[in-house]
Queue: 4 jobs
Job 1
Amino acid sequence: MPEWVEVIIRSLAIIAGLFFISKLLGKKQLSKLSFFEYVVGITIGDIAGTLSMDTNLNLTNGIISIAIWVMIPVIISFISMKSPSFQQFIEGKPTVFIKNGKIMEENLKKEKYPLAALLEQLRKNNVHHASDVEFAILETTGELSILLKKEKQPITVGDIKTNVAPVKEPQTVIMDGKIMDEALSTTGLNRRWLKEKLDQLGVAVENVFLAQVDSYGQLTVDLYDDKVKVPEPVEKQLLLSSLKKVEADFELYALQTENTEAKNMYVRNRKKLAEMIKTLTPFLQG
Amino acid sequence: MIELTVASQVKQTLASLKSIHAGLQNLAITSTDEETKRVFHENMLISEEIINDVKSRIGELEFEEPEYKGF
């Protein structure tokens, strides 16, 4: 067999092998690798590379070597899953750099981390004043995690509104003009419902590039033809405004009628409507 | 604008209430979150109570102004 044929066969086999090894090692992102895992990955790649090129090398020896380099990290990660103290031994402990708003000089020295590098990491996290930080910790992967002081934290919806309606992930029900039946059924809807909704918007399935359903069952579409205007879903807003209108109607009727019984009925129901508006507003707005 | 009788005004309100009821029912069915479903369903039931009250009031009004019956 000519040498180049052997190189082709070796290379193809090793590429296939490496593909499965990378599946086996899991989907940790490169940046999340510890130094050990990083070195292991490079070594496996180096062995595989040399093995596929150099026909003088014994294939069996190479495969055994790769197998060991793969086995050890797999075993280590398996034990780490079972034992937190072993995991700490392998990955190391995160180091606190800022505590109670004060920089821990000793810990910086211990990690051989210059102050300039700490400031750089803070800036990368959009923090330009070290005094804005309540707590910062150097993770085992080398990333800096930061907790800002309460008054420097960005505002969240929960800060302004006390009752916020829950929102679930939207489902993509049409992609590239094709109906995604699986996504439809996870939302408890079907093709007939989708057809009805599309008819209301006046578009055909074939013209829809993307359609998504939110957790309220409202459909938003993007058409192939970007010149066509599609109305935004307004059902919820309409519902809220008609609730308000009926409430106002009842208030008026209660004033107009001279029949006490009818007056009481209107007042009672106006209160019910006010209560409904209060509970439904977070769900129907936005 | 034509002066509407009380009965026909209340009938318009009834129509709005019915559409609110249908809208809530729709949202209760198509929402995926359990808590949201529950809130819509409960409010749909309240709207049913209000509809019944308004219906019986319309009956009384039609009795008082019989010429507008079936408006």
Job 2
Amino acid sequence: MIRFLLKGLIRDRHRSLFPVMVVTVGVTVAILMQTFMHGVMDDMVRSNAKLDTGHLKVTTLGYREIARQMPNDLSISGIDRFLRGLETDYPRLEWTTRIKFGGILDIPDEAGETRSQGPAIGLAIDLLSEKTREIKRLQLAEALVRGRLPADAGEVLISDEFAHRLGAEIGETATLITSTAQGGMAVHNFVIAGTVRFGMAALDRNTVIADITDMQYVLDMEGSASEVLGFFPNLVYDDRQAEEIVREFNDRHSGGGEDDFLPVMQTLRMQNNLGEYLDLAAFRVAIILVTFFAVMSIVLWNAGLMAGIRRYGEIGVRLAIGESKHQVYWRLLAESFLVGLTGSAIGTALGLAVSYYMQEVGIDISGMLQGSSILMGNIMRAHITPASYYLGFIPGLAATFFGSAVSGIGIFRRQTAQLFKELEA
Amino acid sequence: MGNQADRSAGEAAPAKNGALITTSGLVKQFPTGGYLFTALNGINLLIDRGEFTGLVGPSGSGKTTLLNIIGALDYPSSGSAVVLGSDTKHLNHKQSARLRNHHIGFIFQTYNLLPVYTVYENVEFPLLLLGMEADRRRRAVTQALEWVGLTDRAQQRPAQLSGGESQRVAVARAMVKKPEIVLADEPTANLDAENSHNILRMMVELNTELETTFIFATHDEKVIRYLRRRITLRDGRVVEDREMEPDYTT
């Protein structure tokens, strides 16, 4: 009987092709939406984590409140001891110190007069120590466009776009004009070792990357750092564990105190509204899947009704020949199961194939990010997750089954007694 | 056309080889626009194994309603219709389906073949419902197609067949499970004279060979000439029930 059903399905395109196409398209779209949402959010989270938030971030309470203003006067002092404490207490995580700063980068001419200048956003990281993992973490070698990575004190990297705008060349002097942590004016000459491009509009515009020891000296912050970032192994964020660590750390170190210099830890989700973004993304994926399920169910329900009308005669004959209403109903459901299975399998394969392509190639959205301060890549990529394998498949199968189950109820309402009249009509 | 042994209207006919179908005081009413329309009114019939019987009468006389009740497609409002020992009034949907599946074949005016299946598969379908094993099924289908002379068209689709051929497939489908009863509602209405006679001759042969009881609902003279018993209905009552000498000449 299964073979008989299969033959009918394969030969009758109205019964198979249209519903299979609907399910295939629906499942493909659902998977694409899911992988894209996940890819974009994943990229955003990863970029934010690496460049700004870490998986965990420790600052002083006062710094946290006005972090956007980069208040380096509220930095953590005794940073070496503090860092060792963190490494002892949480040895699974990699800890690193950073300083953010702002200023003006001035490119002088041969006479020492300003040739060009522009506002700069600076990031001071551990560039030169032997144990540093920052170069790998920020993929600076991959981001390098011209020149080389800094090898000595006094060397900096600047974003390639910034260098072009300023007309700065590798090996030239760049003067950073900024303010110290105490509010005094600071002017320091650096040598441009190389230029970098991260593929993120917010970073590529006017970034300066300097060694943290240099900047501690320039900003008069010896022994201090404004931020300490913690990273889970392999850069895989674990929200539950992060929250546990934050709770434990804050209970121990700040405990509800209000002193501006108390150290306070935050998870990635607590910063830059990332928690809201992540929740919103998850909510959107859920909405997409529910909508997809509802729309497909309605479409397939109607397809089932249309097929039911078209197959009214056939069903009548089958009832007359001796198939019971239950048997007809269950066989319709079996057909829908086969249709759902086929459509969902093709749709999943197609969705994953396109997602894979989009994961590898992506879509260039740099034009849309001009002037944006969001830390996300210029290439929007999909990201296939284990959920991608079933998030379209199961609703695809269920919607087909549900649509047929609802439309097939008409079989039970049919008066068998009318068969002869109907069939002669 | 012979017309001997006039049976009194409304009285059950005597059994010959054992009654297959018995109706007693059979009444069927339908609610129509606030009142009950009586389609069958006190039908008493006894149909024996191997009969070649026709329910004859004008439209609205109750032929199809009676065929529905005999085929367990409908229930009597009162009275009883006992088919192969089962009172159709007390059968649920599943039991009715089982009765039709095992013992009754249907032939329709418009053939009603399943269009996506081949001739072979159309004839095979009732056997699939019976859960018959593949070997027996193949033999039965081949035999049924031989009966109707369509072995060479086994792999054709219904759309590729003529009207006469389609109805022969319908006959093969009805006969393949060798049912005790075949119910045929105006089986020749869409056929020309030659095809009608071919189909009817074939049915007579099957009736003789397999002792299958054929019951027709018809007002087609071509069919009536082949009947051995004619039950005339008018306004839901049997007005005449007589045995006849069939006329097989074309």
Job 3
Amino acid sequence: MLKTTNLTFQYPGGGPLRFPDLEVGTGQALLILGESGCGKTTLLHLLAGLLRPAAGEVLVGGSNLAAMSPAQGDRFRGQYIGLVYQKPYFIESLTVLDNLLVSPFSPKNEKAAEVAQRLGIGALLHKLPGRLSVGEQQRATIARAVMSHPKLLLADEPTSALDHRNCATVIRLLKEEAAANNAALIIVTHDDRLKREIGTSYELQAASREP
Amino acid sequence: MIGKIAWKNILHKPLSTALSVSLLMFSVGIITLLLLMQHQLEHKFQNDLRNIDLVLGAKGSPLQLVLSAVYHLDAPTGNIKMAEAKSIMQNPMVEQAVPLAYGDSYRSFRILGTTEDYLKKYDAQLLEGRVFQKSMEAVLGANVAKAEGLKLGDTFIGTHGEAEGGHEHEEHPYNVVGILEKTNSVLDNLVLTNVESVWQVHEEHAHEEEPTAEDPHATSLDFDHNHPDHDHAHDHDHSKEVITADSMELTAVLLKYKNRLAMLNMPRIINQETKMQAVLPALEINRLFYMLGIGATTLKLIAGGIMLMSGFSVFFVLYSRLRERKYELALLRSVGYRPGQLFRLLLLEGLLLSGLGYLLGVALSRLGLWLVNRQAAGDFHIKFLGNFIPAEGWLLLLTLGVGTVAALLPAWKAMQVNVSTALSEG
């Protein structure tokens, strides 16, 4: 489902950042661990097409994200990639339900209710996201990420702000949702608690940044 | 969804939205009110002008003469001698001459002594009854009949002068013989009778007051001086029974000429050679609108200034919120919106703000019009209508234009948001 080759990123005014080749199949999960500043988020944004690599390929379902124009990338991401961020971002003026349906590629209401029910936020759909607890907010972002039935689910430090109980729940939900959508799941984190939850992990080394 | 986000966003910050919208509302309100009033005043003044080429009246302010004789908005400049007026009215170049005699009122409505020609000039149709034929018969304009609840056969008493509380001519009641259909002209607010009725009422009146009159013969002396061949009128000056037309006075005469040349030449001759003045009403009304226009232009400039400020406020509201909305914009990009759609989102918010301001401004202008009407209806018998006028369409385009221009830079900035940086902050 996801395959990267020779992925390199160039920060403006910095040295090139090389990433190891990755491959994750449909329904599989991969944990990418690493300390802060080692380029975890950069890697995730490259995989999501939010950043453009200096060299290399990001193949999602056979399409090379790296070769797409920004507008094509946005559309592709909207259709095939679900993102969960470190902080739960919302359109504050919209209700939780409208936030779930915010993507132009979202299906209609019934699916939102169904997904929200599955994630235990069914009763919160008509509240503003600002009124939810942190745990509820994170569930809502997971719900949004899977609304458009993605092939690839990417999560950036999804548990760093959560206590143990919520942490376990969020990871369980991410795994369940990835499985339900038959999507590849990639989580980047420095949270060692997750090692217990996801078998396949990869340690990203700060050393891979060249001087 | 873009539309929903834009709408929810401007509602989400009610204070800054209220600021921009209320600034727009006031500027649109003021401009619309001015446009409406100007449009309708001009239309009304042109409509009432009909084919009156020239107004003949006593010397004084030409504008006052036109306002009083054509529009019945001002006090008359004075009276003119029938004999003197006649020499003009019978001039071969004159196609039609309608005499007007006034000075009395019923409640706030002017009693106008004239001939049937005056009614024809305004294409007046009788709703019921007939046109006045004898003295003391009155035909009521539509608004008069409605406001005072008068019917055919009713009688009423005129009051001397234009203001209420003047001397009442109790011994000369008018008899209602006709009521006019609404004409949307000055006729609606007039009580019409023949010239003789007005004379008869005032003949009596003058007689009563004779002992206290300081110089009752002053006008007659002037008259004699100019037209010695008519001095027999003097003998009957105070006679109740005989009204000799030549000795009587008119307030004004509305003239229509056979050709333009005469119309342009006559005023000069009349003004130089008689004690009367002749005024081209179209010219005076243009002059009046020119003067009103200076005031209206100043107000429009002020309103334009407010409009400019409101444009800036829309800009500031959208631009200053960009920083806090960076995450939202990045989020929208990450769920599949293209940069062009974010541009549209911000533009739409500018349009919504300005459209809202326009709608409220138009509503405000109607409220203003209602207030003006409440005032003007009593004082001037003018009623402004709230009908949509084409200039409002242009104003809508202008307002939306201001909103669009104000949103352009914020919208462009929204497109430039670095999604990756925004989402990895924190």
Job 4
Amino acid sequence: MKPDASTEKADCLTWSAKVEVWDIAVRLFHWSLVLLVATTAITGFLAAEWWLDYHVWAGYGIALLLMFRLAWGFVGSYYARFASFRFPFRVLLKHMREVVSGKGGQYLGHNPAGALMVFALIFVLLALVLSGLIGLGGQENQGMLAAFADYQSGVLALEIHDILSILLLGMIVAHLAGVVLESVLSKENLVRAMVTGRKKAEPGRLPHSFGKKRVVWRAPVVVALIGLIVGPAYWQLTNMPASGFVAMKNNPTWASECGDCHYAYHPSLLPRSSWDTVMSGLSDHFGEDASLDKDTQSEISAFLSKYSSEHWDSEAANELQKVDLKKPLEITASPYWKQRHEEIEPLVFKRKSIGSKGNCIACHTDAKSGHFADEKISIPE
Amino acid sequence: MKKQNIIFAALFASLVMPLSMAMAASSPILDEIKKQAGGVEFSAERGKTLFSQKFTGGKPDTPSCTSCHGKSPQNTGKTRAGKAIAPMAVSKSPERYTDAKKVAKWFRRNCRTVLGRECTPTEKGDFLTYMMSQ
């Protein structure tokens, strides 16, 4: 064993020897987090709706990493433990004054400002995961909380999610600035230290007993425990029926009669009053005679009323029931429909593969179920 | 496949095939319309004209059958809402014109939409004769 590789005994170090500070678990955690946060940022801020799946998977990944880091903060190696970087407020103030006067590098592990950032990042990321899950469950009727979150909570949660995501961007900038500043002040490349795990031990910042042996067996145990808890919980929760959806028995008459000329609009897409007007005016149905015999008409009418938007708590039902008052029968005239489709060029709707704005199912591949999930959108050429 | 099954299939085909061919030649739906029309001889030529002609009495978006069904009965059409319509020609859509209720429903709706009135039995007969010849 080389003398500078020994981390258990401080006294056999020569000054300026490199010692291991960030254990392998901390480093893997850090860089995986960087990758996943970047994925969520790109899919969340820049990508189109149908990238939602990737955003969500990266979010779940972040949740798992955070769970690991929280556990590691108690059972990990010395510098990974929260106890090793929980500084009193006055120490933080003292540190800030020293930084302003150009002094740095006294801390081998996190300095007080860096430590504060670690806690803040963990807190904000946890809040992002939670608000994302509530939003996903409430607005999209998907994910682990689909059975519990209602639409309005989902909308609110996503507003908070948006604000937190901007805050996180700011924090990342501050974190990077802090790393650069401390690197300059301590004359040590801290980015490289997070890769190699090693930092220079100098007079005044002696390495603490590191606990390398613990890392080797504790990390896999923590990972296995998280897997044992999260795996079944995920399976159990995602298999519960979404709260916004009712079990609708398909009506073959509705499916065939309405489906003859157009995508059979899901009953949840219009309020009862609109369906009643549609069904009583079939002899002039959007410029065509679509009259039905009496029995068929009343059967379809009853079906549509029974499952009209008032009975659902999905995104489509909640938003599309706010119809355009002058055109209460036109789903594509409602304010929400227009707002969500405003970025789509009119020529896209004219494509052979689409035909018209009313052909929902051309792009919303799950239109039959009434879900209209973001990731099920696929605009054909 | 067992030998018995092959014999059975051959027997079945020899019985059913001439029967179905005979049915195609004389459709009960067409016979009924013929009765209503008072025995007039239907003409595929007149049916073709009816199919491609432009009318002014109906709804403005659909002046002709071809507005949605396309210029040729052999081709797939498209509703105004963007959904594909199977070709009208019997050779392309053999299941067409076999359900009397369906035929009545679509003549009622589409004649009103395109012509602005119900079609006469002769018009219906010409139309069906044309589509069955296609």
